């Protein structure tokens, strides 16, 4: 019998215990679920989250893998005590959440919904306020992985002109795919709505800075559900104040929770959402965990193995 340690916040145990029990049984895995402080030397797999109680893996000498419940791995990938393979979470619940958050906020910007919400004053403002059709609106998605790729395809399905950008060249139906430094410049220069779904790595830090923000069409809208490190905050605030950027809806920040005194909270052109774009859902995540344990036990290639040299 395998021993699987659940090392997320204890508040999440009531939801994950039945989900993992069911998923492990369905995958045909004979396993016992345990909680910290179970004897580390008995643990075969660690179901991990950066908010959980286990951040030092040294004593887990028998563990065959660390299975992250989060899509992002920046808080664990450089952990010097981590010698086991690390898998990140890619699941249908995360993907649907991200697609819905991005689509909702893209449509909000596209239809100028904020304008009408703040002008319910009896004045009939038809002139100049008919929104263009989606096919006449250019949306750019930076990051075409599990989440960004799904967002790009959904936006393309709604009719938007969608351009995507990633490290390696991709092919996605209905999406103009670019890569490389020139590709980034070309993508930014057409981004009326810019969506950033990149991971936090040294290469992506401050990708949106004074110089790159200046490449966007004047008044562009930014949606960042990726990671806070992607944006130079001072540069964004200056670009918002100058009118270069029309609005930013930000779900992720360099420091979370975003401190109450941070200028984003009070800025009239910023919407803060509290890292809720895409949440891991226990039922679908448990199936991914169970499938990965099955794969490790069978000697098969695991799902969503993190490339630690790339950092994602
Ligand atoms: N706000 C939330 O609630 C929430 C929830 C889940 C995830 N997230 C964030 O979303 C991120 C993306 O998740 P995912 O599952 O889509 O990740 P993923 O499948 O690993 O995709 C990452 C994408 O970013 C691209 N990329 C990475 N580094 C790059 C670089 N230096 N230059 C250009 N492109 C680069 C990758 O390109 P290649 O494919 O060519 O390598 C890939 O297309 C996560 O890392 C996490 O930070 C946020």
From TrEMBL:
Q: Name one GO molecular function term.
A: oxidoreductase activity, acting on the CH-OH group of donors, NAD or NADP as acceptor
In which domain of life is the source organism classified? Bacteria
Q: Which positions fall inside the D-isomer specific 2-hydroxyacid dehydrogenase NAD-binding domain?
A: 119-277
SUPFAM superfamilies assigned to the protein according to its UniProt record, in alphabetical order: NAD(P)-binding Rossmann-fold domains (SSF51735)
Q: Which key words tag this protein in UniProt?
A: NAD, Oxidoreductase, Pyruvate
Protein name, entry field: Glyoxylate/hydroxypyruvate reductase A
The organism encoding this protein is: Rhodobacter viridis
Recall the taxonomic lineage recorded for the source organism: Bacteria, Pseudomonadati, Pseudomonadota, Alphaproteobacteria, Rhodobacterales
């Amino acid at each position: 019998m395998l021993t699987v340690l659940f090392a997320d916040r204890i508040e999440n145990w009531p939801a994950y215990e039945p989900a993992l029990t069911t998923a492990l049984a369905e995958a045909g895995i004979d396993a016992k679920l345990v909680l910290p402080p179970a004897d580390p030397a008995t643990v075969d797999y660690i179901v991990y989250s950066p908010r959980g109680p286990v951040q030092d893996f040294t004593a887990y000498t028998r563990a065959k893998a660390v299975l992250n419940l989060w899509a992002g791995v920046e808080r664990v990938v450089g952990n010097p005590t981590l010698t086991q393979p690390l898998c990140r979470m890619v699941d249908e619940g995360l993907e649907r959440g991200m697609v819905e958050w991005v689509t909702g906020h893209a449509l909000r910007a596209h239809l100028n919904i904020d304008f009408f919400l703040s002008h319910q004053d009896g004045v009939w403002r038809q002139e100049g306020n008919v929104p263009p059709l989606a096919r006449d609106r250019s949306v750019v998605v930076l990051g075409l992985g599990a989440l960004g790729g799904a967002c790009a395809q959904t936006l393309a399905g709604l009719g938007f002109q969608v351009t995507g950008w990633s490290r390696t060249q991709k092919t996605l139906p209905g999406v103009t795919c670019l890569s490389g430094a020139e590709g980034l410049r070309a993508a930014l220069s057409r981004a009326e709505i810019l969506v950033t779904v990149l991971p936090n790595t040294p290469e992506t830090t401050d990708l949106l800075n004074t110089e790159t923000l200046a490449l966007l069409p004047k008044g562009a809208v930014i949606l960042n559900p990726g990671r806070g490190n992607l944006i130079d905050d001072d540069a964004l605030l200056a670009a918002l104040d100058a009118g270069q950027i029309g609005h930013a809806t930000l779900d992720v920040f360099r420091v979370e929770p975003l401190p109450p005194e941070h200028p984003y909270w009070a800025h009239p052109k910023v919407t803060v959402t509290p890292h809720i774009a895409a949440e891991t859902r226990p039922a679908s995540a448990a199936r991914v965990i169970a499938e990965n344990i099955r794969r490790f036990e069978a000697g098969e290639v695991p799902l969503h193995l993190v490339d630690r040299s790339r950092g994602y």
